[in-house]
Amino acid sequence: MSVLRGKIALITGGTTGIGLATARLFHAEGARVFVTGQNADTLAAARTELPAEVEILRADARSISDAENVAAKIQATTGGLDVAFLNAGVGRFIPFQAVDEAFYDLHMDVNVKGVVFMLKAVLPLLRPGASVLVNSSVVGQKGVANFAIASASKGALSALVRALAVELAERDVRINAISPGPTATPFFGKFGFPEQVRDAAIGRMVAKIPFKRAGDANEVAQAALFLSSPAASFVTGSDLRVDGGWGA
Ligand SMILES: NC(=O)c1ccc[n+]([C@@H]2O[C@H](COP(=O)([O-])OP(=O)(O)OC[C@H]3O[C@@H](n4cnc5c(N)ncnc54)[C@H](OP(=O)(O)O)[C@@H]3O)[C@@H](O)[C@H]2O)c1
Fold it and tell me: Is the pTM here over 0.85, yes or no?
């Protein structure tokens, strides 16, 4: 199967976790893939883990000029874009009382500003029939203690996707959100907890998931493939949970 044969795809935050799994899958399905990341170590590791044809670009999601450079690079190399998976994101646990400006800015700048301005930068490149996919989270729809700021940033994405689905239809561009539940990726290691506390917190979440396990990055990638493919040609403005039933 090559459901993305001939398509050009951008995946932000494609150096680890869900983005990396999706980059592999999109490449295997025939797409020419560009991924972004900002950390020098994960950029270098991704180079060894991804097929040589996948192009890896350094771009900080918080930087509008980095987004514009990514768009210019894709424009110069390919002349257009068919799939934009806006996936780069952060999520750290902290009691609400401990939230400070830097913590707030990190979540809003990566998760919201990063999506808004990357989409704005690549919009002129999107060809008719293109698909935009935003990686939100089930925590945008469901309350989780100590995760208020991450949840607020993901909730903002859901509203953004609904509004843009109406606006972008005129250009024959679809936009959807995907909302993973807890998914075993390096994300878990960035919660900001000591390991034992982190494992206990994950264990409590997993116990509430009807499937009694965390998701796998490949399971989210498969859902991303569907929403990005022509098979989803009449799907826009939706938010697909990939969460083992947690949000249900
Ligand atoms: N794993 C979960 O349980 C889960 C659940 C719900 C939603 N999600 C969402 O899924 C998305 C992917 O997460 P993941 O689980 O795959 O986690 P991950 O392995 O930590 O991947 C995050 C990706 O985002 C990139 N990124 C982070 N900050 C960035 C920045 N400032 N500029 C550019 N890239 C940046 C990272 O690149 P660098 O290494 O270069 O920073 C990495 O490629 C995120 O939006 C996350 O919120 C994850």
Answer: yes
